[in-house]
Amino acid sequence: MFADSAKIIIKSGDGGDGHVSFRREKYVANGGPDGGDGGKGGDLIFQVDEGLNTLVDFRHRRKYAAENGSPGSKRNCHGKSGQDLVVKVPAGTILRDAQTMKVIADMSGDNKRQVILPGGRGGLGNQHYATSTMQVPKYAQPGKPGIELEVFLELKVIADVGLVGFPNVGKSTLLSRVTNARPKIANYHFTTLNPNLGVVDLGDGNGFVIADIPGLIEGASEGIGLGHAFLKHIERTKVMIHMVDAASIEGRDPVADIHAINHELESYSPKLLEKPQVIAANKIDAIYDEAESALPAIRAEFEGKGIPVYPISAVSGQGMKELLYGVNELLSQMDHTPIVYEQEFFPEDAIQPEEAFTVEYDPKADEYVVEGPKIEKMLGYTNIDSEKGFLFFQKFLQEHGILEALEQAGVSEGDTVRMYGLVFDYYK
Asked: Which of 257, 266, 353, 404 has the highest local Cβ count within 10 Å?
């Protein structure tokens, strides 16, 4: 079975932790902090590989993770950054968040390579936390974790023209005649289980890509038969060739068949019926009296609605030139910008916010420890040694409920409080 969907877990690398160490050299009794920064985690990247046309490889491997960054070390040595992981997919692959099914990326058109999950940043070493009042900081910043996400991969073939119709009407025969494709052909239903692609070359730089969309029957949009799995491949096409058996060899009514397939297209997505259609009335080599065939009824029903009808024989080649040049003319009047789905889901924005802060008593050090991303960020841009910075620091503690949380934890006047590299005595 053609693999055009898969569900996998992807993860970018964690950032390496910053290091706590102090300079220790001969004749230097009390060297300063020299802990290095942690390395950045590797990015998770998706890249188009033109040699791929299926997602079958993703059926055998469930998780893809980039390398973590290495921790920093002494003597200001920076940790090694984690190696990026490049995941190769066929052109036309759409990445969706598995929970919301919103689009993360569409690997089509000019989008050949995209960073899906950036790696976590490395933590700062203790050298960054030295101040005039805290010259031996024993704190280093931990690395930021990478992002882990379950994604749904969906392949929608990229073709200018979609070839639709009931099984056994000659679609594969037409594709093999007019392109370099070599689909399996036989006189029974559902021979084609893959969306076969072929290139039609009309010379003088004219031509187009055509896809045989298999499995369309009544009820396809509801998942009956194989139709539900392949209807999505019509979404990127610009023109549809609707193929019918004009000779009614199996006793079917071609007009009713066209209406039935159009109903399935509309049920799947009303936008599909907005695409231009042409009708290829096939198997005219088996018609001995055109007046008694289905051709007059097909023309009467659809040509008045602006849908051209081309009598053809995919076996003998009769009428094929008129059909192909007619389709090429339709394409020449259309916008050639590839159909690319816009991003709807941004993994970085979807990460749950971390807890504002925590207050814990450390009995071993006999101090109250306050930590949290907001506090860490504030300390990074506030100069506590200046009068203005100190007043801002006091206001921050009050407005964010940190002083109240300390009192609830049992802090008393004169107790020691540590916030990352900052240590001070608590007074109201």
From this structure: 257
Radius of gyration of the chain (CA): 33
Tokens found for residue 386 = 């200046």
The beta-carbon contacts of 329-333 under 8 Å, at least 24 apart in sequence, are: 330/239, 330/276, 330/278, 331/160, 331/161, 331/208, 331/238, 331/239
Which own/partner pairs from 296-300 qualify as long-range (CB within 8 Å, at least 24 positions apart)?
Answer: 297/254, 297/255, 298/244, 298/246, 298/254, 298/255, 298/258
Q: Determine the 3-state secondary structure of 161 from DSSP.
A: strand
Tens digit of pLDDT for each residue in 261-290?
A: 888 888 888 888 888 999 998 888 887 777
Helices (H), 231-386: 254-268, 295-302, 320-332, 347-350, 373-381
CA 113 vs CA 83, 88, 91, 118: distances in Å: 16, 9, 11, 13
Strand partners, 422: 419
3-state secondary structure of 103: strand
Three-state DSSP at 119 gives coil
- 148-175: average pLDDT: 84
Among the listed ranges 37-41, 79-83, 260-264, 275-279, which one has the minimum average pLDDT value? 260-264
User: For residue 19, what are the CA distances in angstroms to 33, 77, 379?
Assistant: 10, 9, 18
For residue 28, CA distances in Å to 19, 125, 129, 135, 197 come to: 20, 21, 20, 15, 73
Query: Beta-strand (E) ranges in 41-142?
Result: 44-48, 63-65, 85-89, 93-97, 103-107, 113-117
Interval 235-260 mean pLDDT: 85
